[in-house]
Amino acid sequence: MDRAEIDENGKGLLFFGKAKVQECAPVEGQDNVYVLGTVVALERKEQLAPKPGQFYLIRSARSAVQFDRPISVYRSEEKYHEDSGVKIVMLEFLILEKGRGTQELCSLQIDDEIELIGPLGNTFELPENIAESTSSSEKNKTDICIVGGGIGVAPVANFASSLKPKSYDFYASFKSGSYGLNYVKPKNLIVTTDDGSVGMHGMLPVAIDAQKIKDAGYKVVYACGPTPMLAYIQKICNEANVKCYISMENRMLCGVGACLGCTIQTKEGKKRVCKDGPVFDSDIIEFEQPAARRPSLPEGTEPDLNVEIAGVKFRNPVFAASGTFGYAQNYRGIFDVNKLGGICSKGTTLEPREGNPGQRVVEVVGGNINSIGLQNPGLPHFIQYELPEMLKLEPTTIANLAGSDLDSYVKGAELLDNTDVKMIELNISCPNVKAGGMAFGMKCDAANTVVSAVRKVTKKPIMVKLSPNAPDLVGVAMACVKAGADALSLVNTVQAIAIDIEKGKPVFANVRAGFCGPAIKPLALRMVYDVVAAMNKLPESERVPVVGIGGIAKWEDAVEYIMAGASAVEVGTATFSNPNAMIEIIDGLRAFMKRKGYATLSEMRGVAQV
After folding, report:
1. What is the reported pTM?
2. Which residue out of 24, 237, 254, 430 is catalytically annotated?
3. Residues 93, 74: contact at Cβ < 8 Å?
4. CA distances from 129 to 125, 126, 167, 190, 410 (A)
5. Which listed CATH number (3.40.220.10, 3.20.20.70, 3.40.50.1820, 3.40.470.10) goes with 307-355+375-494+517-604?
6. pLDDT tens, 455-499?
7. Rounded distance between C-alpha atoms, residue 136 and residue 131, angstroms
8. Widest CA span of the chain, in angstroms?
9. 430 belongs to the catalytic site
């Protein structure tokens, strides 16, 4: 901590602690913007109260997210009680309900607790040559122009409320309606809305441009809002030769300048939004060129979600993953399983298995560690009883075949070859069994051997399920393709352990178990990306489709996998916490494709490969 941020006793001047919610309610006319009010009691009068432009890191005290969210101060009021020596700071924040963290904040009730760190960042300040007066030298004109866009109106409105009334003009731009203007007292208030519901109809350029800045006689402009708006403000201020200060945002971890995770590119090198900003001289900011926007699909046109993998047709690319959906009957009383594209059976072996002894599941941050041990009734029972019921359903049935040795894989494939199952998912990656399983998927030669042997005894398409634990996953994938695999699915669970600290021994009887859930998605996505990249180097006739697995919990996850090159995705752990997850993924994928103008999955597949 800088010396300027500690008092004479070496104690920090920032606040870190909890405060109770005084207010949390939606803004009138807005369904996703909330005002959150709280009161912070500072331990010492030396501790800092926020200034315009600063922010706090905030999250619910009972949060399910790991990191605080940076939220700009919308309004603050400071009171010092001489008798008690306590400084009280009343704070208001405007919050846009967007991701999980802000959803939590917008769901708080009065007297719920939040955690705060702050105030953080630098402030809006008037240049020395700008007189804060009610007018400039020209009658009815002001020197100061303030611009807010969407939720970015909060910090600039806070700044405006600190200035003399009618000493500035205020421009506010929204999609629909208006908010955050309660404490603003400008000489001129100009509001624009995309839908024309309030003020001028259109986006910010309908209200202000370089010529209007010149004509108004502004000497300085302050702005906060979406990045495209800030880039526009920078441009017109440069054209008008007027000084401009903009408040930037970026994803943050620490908020105090330590981690260097929130840097942005400037003409002076990388700058930290949390520490060097968030307020910057716009002259130094280097905005990225916006990506070309894809036109949405024409009204009434629906995207085609059909996908074909190794000659097998699926109505959509969302499959229930093996090991999480039983034999397709368990969830039929909860949602319409017929809406799925495919269903992978429970991992089934030639012989019946009782599975692993002892505790089988441990919940951890971002997922679970499990050691089921391929408990199943055996292939003959599956073929006689479970498979016929699966085949009655509309989703395409995939039989997940596991084994303990080469002979069991071969005999299992022979049995499945005489059934109506559409595809075999060859499981050479299960980490929860002592024999076979993952051992075949760890090395290229072993994978080649088992796939080659199975290929000889079945005409069914073979999709090989790969292990993330293989030292050379890409090599194993290519060995499987060479051996005759028609498709690949990856990844299975990541090998992990859990320790019972009271007993001082591993939780699981097998010691090692499989870690799955949202936490592994970045790892699994990278592996899918790498395998697809390697596949793309093969002649087109030798390439096989890849199905992505690992941590997929929402439609955005599925889009990432498809953009990485996956033909389809399998969803597993997410169903345990949200049985509707796969239906929501299908619906979200469809809506995304429509909005982005993707008529087919093939148009989107692999676009992120570089």
Report:
1. 0.90
2. 430
3. yes
4. 12, 8, 15, 25, 84
5. 3.20.20.70
6. 999 999 999 999 999 999 999 999 999 999 999 999 999 999 999
7. 8
8. 94
9. yes
